[in-house]
Fold this protein.
Amino acid sequence: MTMRIAYALLVVILFAGFPTHAAEPLAVITAVTNPLDTLSLDALKLIYLRKSQMDTESNRWIPLNLPVADPLRRGFSLALFSILPEEQDDYWNVQYFNGISPPKVMASEEAILRFVASTTGSIGYVRKQSVDSRVKVLLLITPPTAK
Amino acid sequence: MRIFILVNLWAIALLMGARSAAAATDNTDSTYRLGSGYTVGETGLSIGGYANTELDVPRSTPWNFTLSDLSLFMTWDNGSRLHFFSELEAGDVLNVGNHQSLGAQNAHFEFERFYLDSLVNNNLTVRLGKFLTPIGEWNLIHAAPLVWTTSRPVVTENLFSPHASGLMLHGSVPVVSRQLEYSVFADLTESIDPYRSSNPFQNALGAHLRYFFSDTLQIGASVADYTLSDLQSAQIGSSFTHIALSNLQSSRYYLVGLNLAWSYKKFELSSEFVYRTSDHAAIASTLQGFVQGVVPISQRWFMVGRYEYFEQQLNKAGQVGLLGLAYRPLPPIVWKLEYRRGEHNELLAPDGLSASFSILF
């Protein structure tokens, strides 16, 4: 009996240390009017570093983020850059010195959906299940479990 | 020392106010955030800047404390193809030293940068105005809160003008699935910048390439062909040198440079070397450079080591070693302390202790 309890405890402890399921996929979205249908992860990375400034229609990209503490933002950052948002501070300090602002921060997924639906060139991310007809999905990414 | 304490108390008060503002919200771009400036509603206008205070205690000359930089950034970007940026700097705002009472007699104002970018396409931007000379990496990010040492490596400012005024084409193109960034510039400072910074170009042509081999390794190369207006500060900074070289002002210089930056976690290794030659037989070819390493000793403390080598016109080649500490309580704030010692370095990088506090606001 004691052995069984010990074994059960061991299993619980071991599984507690690992994710039991993959994180929920994130949908990278843009306005339905955007002629782009897909986007590579590398291209997305350049947009979120503000190094790629224009889409194929010569509209300025407007990348959107969620607040730093939001789990979706943290997962997105890990998937795209393999680092957490706060680990990019040095990069954004240098960009700030050159007059380049980081992506706009929106308060919620709904705020992102509304902004993307109504603003040409904007691009954001929400949970796959939050996507609706107002926007178009360019890419699905599965973030690693947030640190 | 009282002024040092006062300035730092002011900085702490500013920091505390800014921290609470930053902590309160992260969901609009119209709120103030330390290190990101203030965005004025939906106008596209942003205002920010940085400040630096510095204490120098050279081994053989009197100590000096200065509020050395107070810079104001103004950016305008409303989402169109045009982007304006300016940096107005007040230099040496306050000075106090061993043989000098507190005063602002050395204070000066200048536009460090003032340019308009026009985005042609995703790979090309045209810049018109006054900008930082794209030679090496340090000169492009020289602001005190962004670099690890109070003192600037000799190579990053001694052989060329840190500013250029004219036209620059810059952008990036994919090469073997990585980004190659380029800048090509033509300078006409003599004609278009009446308020020239120290050590200005008379005219120049140059280019800088930077290739990202990976997310952690980048290598750059620079070339430039130029004439300097002011050989006094360009060479050594002594009146003797000015007299000796004043008849060489029309000399044309040719420069090549290499720079490298590698980082992993919080470890960093960087290096820049420049070789300059000229068309005048009296001006010797000059090689200068540095290698710098940064090692994290905790989350916020860093140890910095640097070796510099610099050939000079009127002295033997100088060498300097630097050992320093940097404390970063928050990313836009850094305290630094360093000791520098070398040989044949009296004029360009004298032995001594330096400390500074700098903040991006």
The domain at 2-360 of chain B is CATH 2.40.160.10 (Porin).
